[in-house]
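We give this protein:

***
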Amino acid sequence: MATAEVPEQPDELVELRDGIRDDDREILRFFARRMEKVRAIGEYKKKRGMTPLQPDQHDAMLADRLEWAQELGIDPIEAARKLIEILHDTSVEAQQAIIDSPE
């Protein structure tokens, strides 16, 4: 994929954007590591006949993560809620795929 040419930017802006790019790479590394754990949980649940969605666990997890987001000063908190829900929904989908897969 070719990279589009970007007009010359002030050094400070370039540095800030480079920092965001580095942070995004780290976020994706953490996501990949998280998904490895999600798949392991999916295998665990499959072996034990469990469903991927555990409502009590979800509610406790969401409350916990939103508290962390508030402690970190994330504003708006709704952005953190959306991110957490995306992560959770993706996890449930991945676990369901594992549970539904043939032995």
Remarks:
- The chain has a mean pLDDT of 94.
- The helical segments are 11-47, 55-71, 77-100.
- Residues 62 and 85 are 8 Å apart (CA to CA).
- The chain is about 75% helix and 0% strand.
